[in-house]
User: Fold these one by one.
Assistant:
Number 1:
Amino acid sequence: MDTIVAVSTPPGRSAIAVVRLSGPQSLAILRVLVQEEQFAPEPNRVTLKKLLAESSPDLIDEALVTYFQSPHSFTGEDMVEISCHGSPVILRQLIDLIQCQEARLAEPGEFTLRACRNGKMNLSQAEAIRDLINAQTQAAAAQAKRQLRGELSEALQPSKQELIRVIVTLESAVEFVEDDLPAVQVKEMSKVLGRVTSHLARLAETYQAGRLLREGLRVTIVGRPNVGKSSLFNKLVRTERAIVTDIAGTTRDSLTEATSLQGIPVSLTDTAGFREAGDKIEAIGIERTRRAMADADLLIVVVDGSCSLQDEDVEVLKEAREHSFIIAISKGDLPRVLTLDGQLNGTEVVHVSAMTGEGVPDLTAAILKPFGSDSGSVDLLITDSRHYDLLTRARSNLERASRSMAQSAGEEIVLADLHNALKLLGAITGETTSEDILSEIFATFCIGK
Amino acid sequence: MAFDEAFDVLVIGGGHAGCEAASASARLGASTALVTLNLDLIGQMSCNPAVGGIAKGHLVREIDALGGIMARVIDRTGIQFRLLNRSRGPAVQSPRAQADRALYRLEMRTTLENTPNLSLRQGMVMDLLIANKRVRGVVMQDGRSISASAIVIAAGTFLNGLIHTGRQTYTAGRAGEPASIELAAALKRLGFPVGRLKTGTPPRLDGRTINWDAFQSQQADERPVAFSFSTDKIEQPQIDCYIGYTTADVHEAIRKNLHESPLYSGQIKGVGPRYCPSIEDKVVKFADKDRHQLFLEPEGHDTNEVYLNGFSTSLPPGLQQELVRMIPGLGAANIIRPGYAIEYDYVDPRELGPDLQVRSIAGLFHAGQINGTTGYEEAACQGLLAGINAALMVQGRPHFGLRRDESYIGVLVDDLITQGVDEPYRIFTSRAEYRLALRHDNADERLSKYGREIGLVGDGEWERFNQRRDRIARIKGSLETTRIRKSDSAYAALSEKTALNGIDSLTLADLAKRPGISSSIILQLIPLESRASASLEEVEFALADNLYSGYIKSQESVIHRLHAHDTLPIPTGLDFRTLNGLSHEMAERLQRAKPVTFGAARRIPGLTPAALATLLVNVSTAS
């Protein structure tokens, strides 16, 4: 039995989120997370531990971890529960890290299934759970009908067909050696595989954007005091939500407002300006700014366009470099002194005036760039982490197949990876059976003595 | 009722399935009778005089590892041995041998005649005697009755056989032999779902009338690979086969005469195999091909008869003769037996359990073409399994089955009993998810232990197997522990064959994975104490394990991920219609297929994920 992982709390932002692992590797994975090879938690006891990024001292979160020893757990297997802060950023990091270990994302209802299998539930309990699984499956089916799965499946069809074509050619060469078949064109096939691989890669890359689409994009406005952060904030949320004065340091606490930009949910945070703290309240405000920065998917660094770049601006930009950020040059209605035209080391720079609204559409476009139609040929966004997982694994199988082919490995070895890739894609698009492949062979080639 | 004779196990049919079934059952100690229409035609090859081929060769070696007889018989009577795919990876290599048709038949008969507990009886079975859902015996055409606790039906194309040549049709089991009409009717009376399949065979030519120079010869292997793990040497003198081609003129002539073909006039209702198409089919479906390959296969040392492989046809015999003479090199060739198509009955194999026993009647087993398969090897392995299980049942021992991940036989049986068939079923390597692990040369490692447990593998073979296993283990050990160092004299020579990039040292196992390094090079590098008793073939075995180990592991993890619950058993006799939450349609599909594991259920076409989830929860809880 392999080890599975899932976020057990509902998706989105919350105070606390629970990540559960079940399976023989659970404890070993926890040891990796806390970077303590000998960590031997007493079963059923909650421990406060620091979770660290793999082989680095970077803190992901401080969390409550509990180990349940088989058979005394919900599923009857070894289990670990991690209660961490409910930030999508943290959860994303954590799940990615766990998946790099010997664990995979659980299928819907899989924890319950394991509980049933291990006799942790009686028949009547299972009846209730079965309805739950049905409901989940139906919800998944409904979602598929609605759009995503259907669309994704459709988007994958051309790649899948190309993959099947390569498989058919190689299988025929292996299976019908005595038939008078055309020689296998290795070059042509590597080209096709390359095409399929990059298509899967492009689709998988949209996951980041897709996840933001579902969970909402968290954007934080930062900058030194009095550059016009709050004015910009008000303009973007389309209300006079933040108090705006010309006194530097008016905003003392972070302020968050939900809005939507071109239909995409955005949670926008205005923050206290960055500078040497003058008093205790300001110091707390700046600390909160740092936290809001850490939790953001995107920062807007505001600099005042009506004067030259200040040391404090440079400080802010330095801090922002740790995150993804864009630069808004504010006060476009005043005579421009500062020029940072175009792109700055690949960073988007937008001129904007909160007063006249000039440049706001440009800023909106810059914020939404990951979703934009200019981001490439893929309009479809992957939102389901399971799909992402499947696409990524299919892609790595295809890459290995291409490498084997380049090294003139046997067809059966190349095919092992190609079949794996096809199976993984099949979990999205529906399975291709060996019978389907054979049918394709007989339709393509004249087989048989 | 008083019976004329009584046996534990009775096998109907003396073809490739029947022979294996009777031999296995008798050797397991069950008193066994083999009833066949003509004792002189036991082990007759109705079609192509050859055994093996890709995937089929795997089946034969598995039969041998379990203790069956086909491999030994072909090893003694094969006149052209070739290991197919020799230039490809070891997992897809497979032995094939052309047989001397008459010698094969005689050798098989001798083998059966010398089997203790086995009685041969000539006659035609007319009816099955069944009481209380349990077989009792059979009634024969001549009035005799024979009692048996288990019956294996292996009647081949004889079940309601109907031969077509042009517009002519006549009932027959094979050209010149009567069909089993009454037995087919008896199966229908028992209520089995019966369908029709079709197969065909090409004309046989008089070898003296062939211009052999017009064909390209194909030689036997210099180092023949035997089918049986207990064969030391292939003794039969080896012959050449010949390759030629049809021409566009031949195709045109066929197209003009399609109205004469029972396949295209609608006269044939049965479904034929797509991978063994008639020449009519090839010409119509692949109209852009201007030639089709033909093999001229001599049928034996002491005959002029030549099998025209690739030219299967049911056109009228006169037309066949004209067409043959249009083929380059066959301008003066005479047909001595025309080709024909034959339709026959089969019973839906989804009626069977993994032991090949009909689920609804205790003691009734089906093997071979009755289950919708085609091919001698496919038939033989089913016969072996059915014969084993018939004897085990009579002796009150638990039944024997094989899994998909350990054998091609397991793949074949599982496909049959869960998917059913809609055309004659042939084995292919691509049907096996675990192809890399199922090599022809490791069939003994996979299956001999079962043959031994059951009682078909004797002391001698078992000892032989263990010695071979030990030798291979020693070779594997040397591959891991022997290092080639820069200071070794062999290093320089090796770096001319493959890029060593100045590596200080590497194991033989790593060296073997590099391009340009053959198994014979490795053999020379193995230390003397391990090399002394090892053959090149055993080194190849060890290297194949070495080559695939990583892939097998990662492939298993993907398959495991997706099919984690496949081995979960489904209780026998479970009525799927009583499960809550299954739609009527899904319950019916399951009820029809009667899967015995969750994996079998998953492979039933048309089941929705929701239905599978419901089933999974139900059976998980039940177990």
Number 2:
Amino acid sequence: MPSRVRSSVAIFQIRLAIAAVFLGCLTLIAGCKTSEDAAAAATQMSATAKSLSDYYAALSAILSDTDQIYSINEELYSKPYSTESRQELKTTQAELAKRITLATDLSTLAGNFAKLTSSSAPADVATAGNKLESEVDDLASYKASAGEQNAIKSALQLFVTAVQAHKEHEAAQAMDSLASGLSALFDKEAPSWKSVNDVYVQLAATLAGNLVDQNAVDNSAALKPALDPFGLTPSAPAPDLNTKLAPLAKQQISARQASLLNSYSNATDAMSKSLQEMSQRIHMVATDKPMAFRTPPVTVATVEQWATQVLSY
Amino acid sequence: MANALSDVQATFLSLDAQYNLLLAGCKTQAQRNALAAQYATAQQNYQSTLNATLTDNDAQVAALSTQLKAANAQVVRATAELGNISKVIDDITTAVSLGAQLVAMA
């Protein structure tokens, strides 16, 4: 199965999982707030969590593409791609995979939320919670986020304990801490993930420019503004015409490079704001305060748009 | 605040962008080998730093980071001139070595 298709399947599974988690939260929160507020919180959190899973999946695709660019550069231009660098990149991929796994396993916990009323639920929740704790421990290579990871772990422990004792209000408060910890972790790690995107975009732009210089690219796409309105498609251009179109291809590379960096920056800002807003709204519900919001944070649409764009390359 | 990751990243990306030009300017196999070795080290420095996520508020890291910024600027200037390929490789070596020191502090 192509990697992009696998990614899409994985994203769909993660979406379902995270949606289930927050619908589980609805069950939990409903015990301590009005059903309207709880329903609104669940809808909003579902949309935000879906965006977070898409964000990490898109970053995973970007890392894979970077690995391929390194290999292409080694073959075409003798730029070394050492065993050590390959291993380091794999380590970064593994760290990202842990975050995706963490999101997936939240779905197990969510499934147990739904069974809160059954007698076996506390044990199931404890098992799922302990597994999540172990996975948070595995997120160790990012030293700067150790504090945030500890906060998440503490919140998980509090949550499991509260559910085992059927203390729904305390469990909602623990979920409040967990949401806050996830938001802080995202912000703390943002520079690292931004670097992953920045490096990919510039490496790709440099490689694309080199290929244009070598006349290894069909530059006839530059003719689209003139031909598209008339339903015409360009033929493969003769070498001299292709060379004349090369500067336009270079301009397109520069313009797209700036656009890719800008859209990532906007998506990251939007993701951060969405998580913060989600955390604040959970806090309102968990502390029995009225929640006036009935729609998901508007910023999640920006994240979705970026992730869809990346995964469609 | 110094940003070690972005500095090491800048060294690697600058070298990647100029690599073909620099390689064409090399006159001996020894120069080509030296350039390739520095590229490999710069790439590894970046990937290592990304995984380590250096602590920016460490004074020593900040001082090295400032030096690295200056070295990067020198590489950019020297690459633009391309008059003396040996000098360019020396400048690159300086920048990459500073990056390696940053990685060692992770």
